[in-house]
Amino acid sequence: MEGRTVLITGASSGIGAATARWLACQGMRVVLTARRQDRLEALAQEIRAQGGAALVIPADLASFSDRQALVRQVEDAWGPVEVLINNAGFGYYGTVAETPWEVVERMFQVNILAMIHLVQLVLPGMRQLGRGHIINVASVAGYISTPPLTVYSATKFAVVGFSEGLRRELEPYGIHVTVISPGPVRTEFGRAASGLAVDPGEVPGGLNPEAVARAIARALRRPVPEIVIPARYVPAIWINRALPRLVDWGAARQGRAWLRHLEKARSGGSG
Ligand SMILES: NC(=O)c1ccc[n+]([C@@H]2O[C@H](COP(=O)([O-])OP(=O)(O)OC[C@H]3O[C@@H](n4cnc5c(N)ncnc54)[C@H](OP(=O)(O)O)[C@@H]3O)[C@@H](O)[C@H]2O)c1
């Protein structure tokens, strides 16, 4: 991995920032992108202080032209992207009926359309090199759709499906594709999805973002098509596939309880 250029989206916090730190420690040249430039600059300073190489390119991934400019700037500075980690994404806690349309559109832009577009933009460089690795961050919600994250789940189902086809398409060119699907991770996701200043509640047993970063690093060393982390979610995914009606009942109930909890948190109650 030493000296290879890796473009990490959503590097300003959570899984993206942890992955950037981890891969920079392994000697990779990391390109950090997200909207919050101050966060990216602080992380780049930290990486450089430890002898690593980091480049900051702020971008709003919902913007077509920002995505084009991002890849152009990486290539001008450091040549072709050898590893692309499509990690940026966000969710929204709410019923389908109540989710504002702008949020639905933006979520699809950032979570899946930006992913497809960035792949299109980096592929010519990878094809020229004759190698590459694309890692797409999905979610367990990309296999099990649970309200009140139904729209988010739809974007992540798309990520899983896109990654499967992409893997089959790119195998002959020596370009690996891995889709990684974490269960709950302790990041700023909950705050962003609820619009609250404080996370409305951590799911018990949530992972540290570093665990996901390490799994990504392992996949880069030894490419695998799919990772579900933690592995205890694999049986749940199979049960959901085999017995969806059984899961329906529990998921719907849990979704309603979560919405009530959010309602309380939003109105300043104890939740
Ligand atoms: N946390 C979980 O429980 C969990 C579980 C499974 C999967 N995931 C997935 O993991 C990925 C990372 O999320 P996280 O948990 O680390 O959450 P996070 O801490 O909220 O990080 C999300 C990242 O996405 C970036 N982002 C959001 N909108 C963007 C936009 N329009 N343009 C550019 N960057 C944008 C954010 O940067 P800026 O705000 O600075 O732009 C931030 O760096 C997401 O795809 C998420 O769906 C999370």
How would you describe what is shown here?
The structure is a single chain. The model has no long low-confidence stretch (mean pLDDT 95). The longest helix has 29 residues, at 101-129. The chain has one domain: Rossmann fold (3-Layer(aba) Sandwich), CATH 3.40.50.720. The chain is 52% helix and 13% strand. The chain has nine helices and seven strands, in the order βαβαβαβαβαβααβαα. Strands 3-2-1-4-5-6-7 form a seven-stranded parallel sheet, with helices on both faces. NADP nicotinamide-adenine-dinucleotide phosphate (NAP) is lined by residues 10-16, 34-36, 60-62, 87-90, 110, 137, 139, 182, 184-185, 187-189, 192.
The main β sheet shows up as: 7 strands, parallel
pLDDT below 50 for ≥5 consecutive residues: which ranges? none
Gross morphology is: globular
What would you say the CATH architecture is? 3-Layer(aba) Sandwich
CATH topology name, in short, is Rossmann fold
List bound small molecules: NADP nicotinamide-adenine-dinucleotide phosphate
The total count of strands amounts to: 7
| Strand portion | 5-15%
Biggest sheet: strands side by side, in what order?
A: 3-2-1-4-5-6-7
Helix content class? 40-55%
Radius of gyration: 18 Å
What is the number of independent domains? Answer: 1
The secondary structure category is: alpha/beta
